[in-house]
Design a protein that fits this description.
367 residues; alpha+beta; five-stranded antiparallel β-sheet
Length: 367
């Protein structure tokens, strides 16, 4: 709020015509000179002359500083001399000469500071423009239409902690099988977003050639690891689900336990291997599941678990599961946003967050 007020005040002041501002500063100088004269040197107004020169430098530039200091020196000298002519003339000349130098230096310092701040504002505006462009690109590939298939109900909600984020998801139907990927790049911001884009591109290419989730994640680890910075890693959950039978195979590279909801009972799907990029040649295994029409599969990144409550504490696992259970009483299309709304009510997100809900409308009898 204070920053907004300062910015608004600055905009309004700088919005005045320059001649009007200059006339205002000159008027202030005459008021100060009159006070100087009437108080007969009892009140030292040098600081106010200096502030006037500084404001002139900040708003009007170096030329205004020289003009304001010149007028200030003449008016201050004249008011002091006529108020008390007994003071030696040489002392007054030296005194006002020194003050004029100090006022000039202060005014020019403010001119220099203003130029530097303007350069910083321009640089920030360019960075902001680039970040907004990057955000739009990332939102485009994170907001791709969900595959339309009457056999599956899918809904996704996501948000980023900064302009750019490191969460990623991909949904595609190939040969009556739904492939669902949820991934989370460590860190936040531009570096995580760049790795996310690279990760998504490699996955898109590999998914055309490999069906087994554990094999795909293992190959992906080999392909992307050389491009990761030291200490950076990616957790990923990949599911291949038969839309006709509900039989699925999944692999989890160090991803947080995902939730399989059946009759309001929570079954957690634990990691089947280490995160991508942690070490060379990680081994990732696969597990199976069977999704019935009444079941719901809930996939997410750790951002939904890292909500900070009003008491500056992390949301507990039990609190999170309660929120999820209540949301699962709603249609799949409403679950992710309902979870986010409840988490917003509990506290504040300080990490990228993604939540995906999935259920099936099976056409064949399960075996």
């Amino acid at each position: 709020m204070p920053k907004r007020i300062v910015k608004r005040l600055k905009t309004r002041i700088l919005g005045f015509p320059k001649p009007a501002l200059l006339a205002g500063f000159v008027g202030i100088l005459f008021c100060l000179a009159y006070l100087d004269y009437t108080t007969s040197r009892f009140i030292q107004l040098s600081l106010f002359y200096a502030l006037t020169a500084a404001l002139a430098g900040w708003t009007l530039g170096s030329g205004a500083v020289y003009l304001i200091v010149s007028i200030s020196t003449v008016l201050a000298f004249a008011s002091d001399y006529f108020a008390d002519p007994t003071v030696p003339l040489g002392f007054d000349i030296a005194n006002h000469g020194l003050r004029s130098i100090l006022w000039t230096l202060l005014g020019l310092t403010l001119v220099s500071l203003r130029k530097r701040l303007d350069l910083l504002d321009d640089a920030y505006a360019k960075i902001r423009t680039d970040l907004d462009a990057g955000r739009n690109v990332q939102m485009a590939f994170l907001s791709r239409p969900i595959p339309e298939d009457s056999r599956a109900n899918v809904a996704v909600s996501f948000r980023t902690a900064r302009e750019l984020g490191g969460d990623y998801y991909d949904l595609r139907v190939i040969d009556d099988k739904l492939r669902v990927l949820v991934a989370d790049v460590s860190g936040k911001g531009a570096s995580a977003a760049l790795v996310t884009g690279l990760f998504g591109g490699i996955y898109s290419e590999l998914s055309r050639r490999h069906q087994e989730p554990e094999k795909l994640l293992s190959i992906l680890d080999k392909e992307i690891s050389p491009s990761l910075l030291d200490g950076m890693f990616i957790t990923a959950f990949l599911l291949v689900l038969d839309l006709e039978t509900g039989h699925g195979v999944y692999a989890s590279a160090g991803h947080d336990p995902q939730i399989f909801m059946r009759d309001q009972e929570v079954v957690e799907l634990y990691p089947t291997g280490l995160p991508v990029g942690v070490m060379d040649g990680i081994e990732i295994s696969a597990e199976t599941l069977v999704l019935s029409p009444q079941d719901k599969l809930l996939l997410f990144t750790d951002g939904v678990l890292n909500v900070r409550t009003s008491k500056e504490e992390r949301l507990t696992e039990d609190e999170f599961l309660d929120i999820v259970k209540q949301a699962c009483g709603m249609p799949v299309a409403q679950i992710p946003q309902r979870v986010f709304d409840r988490l917003d009510a509990e506290g504040a997100f300080d990490d990228d967050a993604l939540f995906l809900a999935l259920s099936l409308n099976l056409t064949k009898k399960q075996v």
